[in-house]
Automatic annotation (TrEMBL), chain A:
It is an enzyme of class 2 (transferase). PANTHER family: DEHYDRODOLICHYL DIPHOSPHATE SYNTHASE COMPLEX SUBUNIT DHDDS, DEHYDRODOLICHYL DIPHOSPHATE SYNTHASE FAMILY MEMBER. CDD domains: Cis_IPPS. GO terms for molecular function: ditrans,polycis-polyprenyl diphosphate synthase [(2E,6E)-farnesyl diphosphate specific] activity; magnesium ion binding. PROSITE patterns: UPP_SYNTHASE. Coiled coil: none annotated. The keyword Ion transport does not apply. This is Alkyl transferase. Belongs to the UPP synthase family. GO terms for biological process: polyprenol biosynthetic process. Pfam families: Prenyltransf. Its EC number is 2.5.1.-. One of its GO terms (cellular component) is endoplasmic reticulum.
Length: 337, 248
């Protein structure tokens, strides 16, 4: 993983350098999905040189400058080749393996989580560069509240620190059109984290270019019953308004269907985004651990062996290649649904 | 102006031929990947042969206590070849798996229910005097047949049940539905599968009931026609070694 430490050097500049217009997918062009304006002037050639200059200017010495520039060129080339095929619209990540990473490199657990955050930033950067519109991240599960209180406190503090740091760079974020949404039972979060999260959601609510959905205090076993509850409440409200127009429920007409599947899906937390195309769980574990169970009906499940802080450019590329290999099959299954 | 237009036209031509070059590169890349997958399949075949014939000692004694309930997800098109499924089930019963949940999206396996139950489920021994029946067919297995209607649609039905139970009466107290309420309304008699073996071209759940796979390990075994006995042993062995924290 000689390239990963270099990625970590470059990644803090995520918002300032690589958020120019994402690589236009050649596949989309062929399908005629993008407007005709993109054919007139190729933005890749225009912005490439300025991006390279920006990256190089920031590096400190000759070696890291050279490696940084090389790294950047290789990335751009690989992304351009991959864009000839279908690119997923929505990728979900389970950030597994921070504590194992810390043990492996003899760091404290907190340092493992911090390394995980850096890896998250670089993976997000690559996703947006390649043109993925929705990225979902499983940051904290309701089951994780069962961990040691000091670890939970540490993760909450880390989240609060990162969200507040993010709020400071708001103008830059809004310029690149990233909308951040926090998904889950936010009432269970610690108060300062919840306040910061709500502020971040409100501040980026107007952006529509790319979406970052952070799942905190989330489990599917909470999301699905809650969606059922909300749809029952809604139907109840509608029936009360219409004065029981539909009202044969009392007469024991057992086949009356009030709540339909579309109603439940409408009330899911994740209704704001389409179903994920790929679900990536790092560290080689093969289970979903109560994440997006409802939404992964036709989703490709990918389990690379790398621990989350080791995730970077190449595992993401293999993941997208795997998706492209199975694209026709998955599309066929989606149509059958 | 003219120079600008010229430049744009040149860039457009470069990018068009660049596009074709990139597309070619993409196809070459996927060709290389297909070759690598074929090599990997050959490697798996060799490995399976070694495991099946007992050359690898680690897989000889499997601790099957952890695999209380095995799930099988089969691609519907492949499930139509009932003989392949029966062969797979015979292997599983030879390994010693007792309870199997069979899932395919369209319910093809549900339709062939009688075939499977007759083959593996009958408690009474067929002809006592015929000693040439292979031992494999005598082992009993319990089955559960699941299809897409038992997935999201079942949750919708459960939602209607809950609605009728709590919302019909305008004055009754309406509780917030938690996991327990939904589990009760879903009325699934069987537990969650511990291990799910996916037989199909891609590692995809294909609509298996979401409610039942919260902590299930999912292993992709490849297409049904290329199933291998040794790889099943390997998957089960790996499962017995997994340590789950359940979040804590």
């Amino acid at each position: 993983y000689a390239k990963s430490p270099i990625n970590l050097i470059i990644s803090p500049r995520i918002y300032s350098t690589s958020f120019n217009s994402p690589t236009p997918s050649i596949y989309n062009r062929r399908k005629g999905l993008s407007g005709s304006t993109q054919m007139a002037e190729d933005p890749i050639i225009a912005t490439d040189n300025s991006l390279k200059k920006l990256e190089l200017e920031r590096s400190d010495d000759t070696v890291s400058r050279f490696l940084g520039g090389l790294n950047h060129t290789i990335r751009k080339l690989v992304f351009r080749v991959i864009s000839s095929g279908p690119i997923p619209q929505h990728i979900a990540f389970i950030l597994d393996g921070n504590r194992r990473f810390a043990k492996k490199w003899k760091m404290t657990e907190g340092a493992g989580h911090k390394a995980g955050f850096l890896a998250l930033m670089s993976v997000l950067k690559y996703c947006y560069e390649i043109g993925v519109k929705y990225v979902t991240v499983y940051a904290f599960s309701l089951d994780n509240f069962n961990r040691r209180p000091d670890e939970v406190q540490y993760v909450m503090d880390l989240m609060q620190e990162k969200i507040e740091g993010f709020l400071k760079e708001l103008s830059l974020v809004n310029k690149y059109g990233v909308r951040v949404m926090f998904i889950g039972d936010l009432k269970r979060l610690y108060e300062p984290v919840r306040v910061a999260a709500e502020k971040a959601m409100a501040a980026t609510a107007g952006n529509t270019k790319t979406y970052l959905l952070v799942c905190v205090a989330y489990t599917s076993s909470h999301e699905i019953p809650r969606a059922v509850y909300e749809s029952c409440e809604e139907k109840n409200g509608v029936m009360n308004e219409n004065g029981s127009v539909n009202g044969d429920v009392n007469t024991g007409n057992g086949s009356e269907v009030v709540v339909k599947m579309v109603d439940i899906e409408k009330h899911m937390y994740m209704a704001v985004a389409p179903d994920p195309d790929i679900l990536v769980r790092s560290s080689g574990e093969t289970r979903l651990s109560n994440f997006l169970l409802w939404q992964t009906t036709n989703c490709l499940l990918y389990s690379p062996k790398e621990l989350w802080p080791e995730m970077g450019f190449w595992p993401l590329v293999s993941c997208i290649l795997e998706f492209q290999k199975n694209y026709k099959y998955l599309e066929k299954k989606k149509k059958q649904a | 102006m003219n120079l600008g237009d010229e430049m744009q036209r040149v860039f457009r031509r470069i990018s068009k031929s660049g596009n074709i070059a990139l597309l070619l590169l993409w196809h070459v890349l996927h060709l290389i990947l297909s070759v690598l997958y074929i090599i990997r399949e050959i490697f798996y075949a060799v490995e399976s042969y070694l495991i099946t014939n007992g050359y690898v000692k680690t897989y000889t004694n499997l601790n099957l206590d952890r695999v209380k309930y095995l799930g099988l997800v089969v691609d519907s098109d492949e499930a139509r070849k009932t003989s392949q499924v029966i062969e797979l089930l015979e292997w599983l019963s030879a390994i010693g798996v007792k309870k199997v949940c069979l899932y395919d999206r369209e319910g093809v396996l549900k339709k062939s229910k009688e075939v499977f139950v007759e083959r593996f489920g009958s408690a009474e021994l067929p002809n006592e005097n015929s000693k040439t029946i292979p031992l494999l067919s005598k082992k009993r297995m319990d089955f559960e047949f699941v299809s897409i209607t038992d997935g999201k649609e079942a949750v919708a039905k459960a939602a209607n049940l809950l609605f009728k139970k709590y919302y019909v009466d305008a004055d009754s107290e309406k509780p917030f539905f938690t996991e327990t309420y939904l589990t009760e309304a879903l009325r699934t008699l069987e537990p969650d599968p511990d291990l799910l073996l996916i037989y199909g071209p891609a590692r995809c759940l294909l609509g298996f009931p979401a409610w039942r796979i919260r902590y299930t390990e999912m292993v992709h075994m490849g297409p049904l026609k290329y199933k291998k006995y040794g790889l099943i042993l390997k998957a089960i062995h790996r499962f017995t070694k997994v340590k789950q924290n359940f979040g804590s």
